[in-house]
User: Fold these one by one.
Assistant:
Number 1:
Amino acid sequence: MLIIPNKKNIGAEIIVNLKNITNKDIFKIKEALNKYGMLYFKKQKLTSKSFIKFAKYFGKLANYPRLKGLNKKFPQITVVQRKSTDKGPSFGEQFHTDSIYTKKPPRFTMLFSKLVPKKGKANTEFSSQYLAYEDLPNSIRKKFKTIKGKYSSEGPISITTKERVKEKGKNIKELKSSHKIIKKISSKYSIYCSPGHFVGFSSKIKSQKKLKKFLFNHQIKKKFQFSLPWEKNQLAIWDNRSMLHQATPFKGNRIMHRITIK
Ligand SMILES: [Fe+2]
C-alpha cells in the first residue's frame, strides 16, 4: 500500500486494491484519514456489497435523513445523480459539511463514482479546517472556543437539494441543530462550521455579521484547498469534522454512490 499526500497534506491518494486489504492496511488508512482529512482511491472494482463492507471498517453506517436508499438490499447507499438535462446547481454546490443540522452528524462520508461525464472532471473541492484553524490568530481562536453555530437543513445550500428531495425525498421537515465552532479531533483542532447550513451564532455576541463574514472567508481560503477530479470507479472518504467540501458545476451525466458513517 502506498500513501501519497497532496500538497500541504490536504488529503492524500492511497494506492491499494480495496478488495484485498489486511487489518494492517485498515489501521494505516484510518491513521491517514485522521492526518489528511480526505483520502481517495482510484481504479476500484467494488460491488455494493464490498463498498458497504469497506465502509463498515470506519464505524456504524448512518442513514441519510433526506434521501431514500439505493434499494431494499442496500438502504445505506444513497444515489447522488445528476443528468445532463438537470437545471440549476448540482447537489452540494457550496462549501459545507454533511448533515451538520442533525444532533450527531456523520463523521465520515464516502463517495464512489459509478458514472462520470466524458468532458471535465466534475471535481469535488475540499478545504482543510485543520489548516484553517492553525492559521487563526490567537484572539479569534479564543473567541470561537466558547461559541456555537446554529444550523438548518433549510440553510443557504438547501436550494441544491430541493430538486433531489422532491424526486426521492423522505424527510421533508426542517432539521435543526447547534455545534461548537472549534472541534478537537484526537490531538488536533479544526474549525467545524458549515457555511451552507449556517443560520446564526447561538450566543449573543458583538458584531455577528462581521464575525460571520470573517469566518466564512477564512475557512475557504485558496491555500487550504484541494480540488479532486473524478474518474469512474474512484472512491473518496473524508472526515466531515476536519474538511469542508463542495461540488463544482459540470455538464453531463454523473452517478455517485454515497455512504455516511456515524
Ligand atoms: Fe456534501
Note: The longest strand covers residues 108-115.
Number 2:
Amino acid sequence: MAGIVLKSLVKSYGKGKPVLKGIDLEIGDREFMVLVGPSGCGKSTVLRVISGLEEVDSGEISIGGRRVNGVPPRERDVAMVFQNYALYPHMTAYDNIAFGLRVRGLPKKEIDGLVREAAGILNIEPLLEKLPKHLSGGERQRVALGRAIVRKPKAFLFDEPLSNLDAKLRVQMRAEISALHRRLRITTVYVTHDQVEAMTMGERITVIRAGEIQQIAEPLGLYQRPANRFVAEFIGSPPMNTFPARWEADGFLIAGIPIDWWQGAVPLPEGLRGKDLLLGIRPEHIEVGKEGKGLPAGIDLVEPMGGESNIYLTVEGKRAVARAGPDAPFRAGDRVVIRFPIDRAHFFDGETERRIEGA
Ligand SMILES: Nc1ncnc2c1ncn2[C@@H]1O[C@H](COP(=O)(O)OP(=O)(O)OP(=O)(O)O)[C@@H](O)[C@H]1O
Ligand SMILES: [Mg+2]
C-alpha cells in the first residue's frame, strides 16, 4: 500500500508568503494523479515536499501510511523524474540506470538483473552502452525512467517529464508512460502544463491555483462540471467562454441581450432571479450562423486547424471563441450570430464564481 496523503500543507520559501496555502490531497495506492495549474502555482513544490527535497512549514505528509515529515529523501522511497532528465553525462545509459543501486551497495548480479529488466520494459537494451550525448531526447527520457524504475519505488513523481520533447515524441512517450503505469501500477503524481497529457493520462486531475486546490476530479468530470470559473476557463483548449448574465423577472439576458431563442426552462433555482451570474459555454457547443436568432457577434479571426476551425469572435465587446467544421463559410470581418442550447450552458455565481447546480 503506497497511497500518499497530504494534510493541510503550508509551505513558504524563506520569509516569503506561503506558496502552498493548505493543500489537502489523498492520492490512492496505484493511482495516476495529475497536477495542473498556471506557472508558479506550486505544482513542483508539492512534488518537492512529497519527495523530501523541501520540508513543509506545517501539515502532514504520509506515504504508504507512514508519516514522513522530517524523513530524508532517500528513505522516503519515491523516485522523481524531471524534464531535463538529469543524467550523468560521463556515464553510459547502463551506468546511469545502475548508479542508485550501486550507491545502495546491491550485489553486481542483482543490479545487472534489475537494469536489464528495466531496459526490457522500456525497449532500450541496444542503447545501454551509449553515453547520453549520443542519445535522442526520447531515449534519454527513457533512460531517466529506467533509473526510476529499477529502484522499485513506492511512488513516481514526474515534473513535466515530456516538455523538452518534440510534439511527436511527446505523444509517443505519453502513451509509454501510461502503459508503464498500467503494467507496474506504481502510485504516480504527474505534473504537466499540457491539457492533453492531463486529460488522457490522469485517472484523476487536481487543479491548483496560487497554492490552493480548486478541484479534484476525473478528467471528464472536470471538463463537464468545473467547480468554478477558474477551472472552467483553465481546462479545455480553446477555453470555455464566459459571459455576464442575469435572469430577470421577464427573461434571461446574456451580456445585456435578451434571449428569445432558448428552448425549455432555465435550469436554475428561482432564488437566482435578479442576481449577477456568469454563463459559461464551451467553443464546441456554440453554433455560428450568418443569420437568424442569436447573439450578434463579429468575427476577428478564423483559425483553420485541418479537421476543424477555431472562430474568434467579439460579442458585445467581449471576446469569445467557437469551434466549427473545416469548411465553415466565415471570414474575419463577417457579422454573424451565435447561439447554443440552454442545456449546454454552465452557470456560475457572479460574485463567488462558484458553479451553480441546476434546479
Ligand atoms: N527555491 C525557491 N526559493 C524561493 N521561491 C521559490 C523557490 N522555488 C519556487 N519558488 C516560488 O514558489 C512558487 C511556486 O513555485 P513552483 O516551482 O512550485 O511552481 P510551479 O507550479 O511548478 O510552476 P511552473 O509551472 O512554472 O513550473 C513560485 O512563485 C516560485 O517563484
Ligand atoms: Mg514547476
Note: The radius of gyration is 25 Å.
